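Database export, one record per block. Field names are fixed; values are copied verbatim from the stored entry.
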Amino acid sequence: MPQATPRSSLPGARPSVFLLAGAFVTGMFLFAHGGCGGDECQDAADCREDNGTPAEGKEWVCDDKRCEQHPVLQPPPDAGTPDAGTPDSGTPDAGAPDAGRPDAGTPDSGPTTVSVQVLAFNDFHGQLEEPASQILAGVAPDGGPVRVNAGGVTYFARHIAALRATNPNTVVVAAGDLIGASPLVSALFHDEPTIEAMNLIGLDLVAVGNHEFDEGSTELLRMQSGGCHPVDGCLDGDGFPGAKFKFLAANVATGVDRTLFPRYDVREFEGVKVAFIGMTLENTPEAVIPTGVAGLTFKDEVQTVNALVPELRQQGIEAIIVVVHQGGNPAPGSLVNECKGAGADGLISGAIVGIAKGLNDAVDVIVSGHTHQAYNCVIDGKVVTSASSMGRLVTDIDLTLSKATGDVVGARANNVIVTRDVQEVGAVKELVTKYQGLVEQRANRVIGWVAQTLRSQTDSAGQSTLGFVVADSQLEATKPANLGGAQVAFMNSGGLRADIGQGEVTYGEAFTTQPFGNSLVTVTLTGAQIEQLLEGQWQPSGATIMLLPSAGFTYAFSASAPIGNRVDPASIRINGVPVSLTAEYRVTANNYLASGGDGVEVLPEGTNRLGGAVDSDAMEAYLKAHSSAASPLPAPALNRVTALP
């Protein structure tokens, strides 16, 4: 396979139409969208970009580095649909994927290559409305960052449509977490609005991510097949058709040689087949409550793909794209088409790097996600991309395939900002407006007041005002003896998805802060286990998962001490009384943490487990009890955790 070149590294690069629009608004050139300078070309994609749409009945061909228009050879009448064909389910018992479908074959004359476009995104998280966060689009003349507003599904739909129009051979794919951890407008309806929006947009394939399992595999299967929710029904008053696109789950096993969803999907373009393998991260069970993944086995990503390569090649498939919900981490301040980081050779770090290097060289492209980052890389000869999160970017991947061999002979990628200077798609806007109207009455209900903005951002000791209030609400909800008898509660900072602004607090705001619908769990731990829980915040992998304690719980740690010995046992106190390592205490956490989420190993060992209220209900009850318009809840002091040298 030839070395793939991301567009951002090409000489003589030009901005795309959308990036030019964004640059016009900001008054500066943002970043590159590649092509070939002068009359030279590398492949048909260059010709299409440099010269526009060819004449009717013709297509661009790059012949000896020069663009020429050749007649389009029509496939035989029984050759199937040239832009997709009949996709293969990829399940072990699906039979031969080409059975009963004639192959168009390789023409005797005409173009020798096929141009295929893959439009990719990841970690959408039901973000139908415009997200508040911006995208770093460039660097100003004074060296400062240039940030632009991006995202919103109505604009996202327009960008997808415009990019799709540049190539009839287009596949739209998503690398997991399409749903789950969603804003109220989608989550209140069990993410049905997001599935319906993606049906309108024309999503083709989605690899499952960890958040697809938030409500369990049965609910995820309903997302594919449709039907009303078994408990809540169809809250929008009509039916739910399910996804018109395909979920893929190559490494999610339900039994011996059986997977929850198809392992891959095969698309055919002008006689050339392309395989899309979809999967989630192997560690999904660590990020999901046990009931969400009950009965499922999550297999190694590299082993899963490499075992499929011989099977795909037996079907005559040489072009392989992996869509995986696992990712990497670029350096802070990186632009969306860069690959800079703390990894080898100054490139990105993270799990996706090892995956890319471990995958068979037959893999041409890896569409990744999970880390909510933007990058555009070539790792071990494979194009590796990620499109940030919440629909703020679309990755435009152009492939050139050899008709003779089926190989990818050219591959380029470009992360395109989903700017809001384009016309919204009317049908998608109508869908969003419908659900906004349905949710408005409940979302705008005032449940409390706060004197200052409660922020999720942590200080150097891992403390945040929002985290403390949430932990306090969970302690209060489980403190009565019949509800758990809790003495301390811990909240994970990763479970806080938005700040709560000063003044009135609506149900919608509170829900957006904790969109997971986790229930509270109270367990018994010894003092020694509590110390072990605190020590576990600094994990051997280098990750730091700080826990936010409820009022009355205090301790000190030394960041310079060795991992496993950072907390001073004598400093751990509840209401000023030192914790005895041999005594037992009642401890509350959400069911994600209590089941071992975020790699927390101690809480699942707790005894006398007792379930409790939903976290958002506990927050509502706490705000109602402790705030009013005349006496809003003050932000708590950040004095529960002491960071020592």
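Remark 1: The first strand starts at residue 58 and ends at 63.
Remark 2: The longest helix spans residues 426-443.
End of record.
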